[in-house]
Here is the input.
Amino acid sequence: MTSKSLGAGGLILGLLLFGCRNNPPEILSLSWQLWLSPPLAAESPAPGETPGNSRSPAPVAPTVELSVFLLIRDEDGEDDGAYLYLSDPKEELFWEIPAAEWEKVTLDGESWIGYSAFRLPPGADFYGRSLELILVDRSGQQARRDFRVSVRPPDPRTLVFPRVEDRGDSLRFINAGEETLVRLFDSQGKLLDEFITGREELPREVFFEKVPPQGGGLGMVVSVRDPERGYWRRGERQTLER
Here is the structure.
């Protein structure tokens, strides 16, 4: 057996490899919400029904999306994440979200990562499901957290969704509540700003000061939280011109 010196380059490489600690990520907190939106498409009439039938059509279920966000700690850096996996082991349901599709939000100065559009197959319901979330970093290290969806969606016949009424010098929130979440988008769909208000009407300039100088319509989505049941009612996206 012959010995061979690493040399300066090999020594540096060895130090770099030794310095890659591959620490596992840690989930400090998990937050989930249910978001109810108007149906994506109108339900087809039942067999034998026509628009002229006196019998009222069955209520159309809203679109339901689950958002899950995590406050994490990873000593290998904020960009070390690779995948989020959400699953319902009992029902063999599985979602895979790569890091490029993660959403980032800031709350009280802390950065949260997650995804806001988990959906189930038609006819399925999130209520009562025990879900498992797995965070995987680039080295394959994992962190897990289990949670149960305890919010039951309401009867579709009782649902009303918020919208914005343009009154010229002001914008009024219809079907609003004590917690109205307003999200503003540019013409390309980029999020410009979001805020929560308890007022039913705000001056127009409050919204349009967020629009870039190049102009274009202002996209707006208004959501209202049900304080008793904990879900959000999200209205359809509207476009307003200056």
Summary: The domain at 160-240 is CATH 2.60.40.10 (Immunoglobulin-like). The mean pLDDT is 80. Residues 9 and 222 are 58 Å apart (CA to CA).
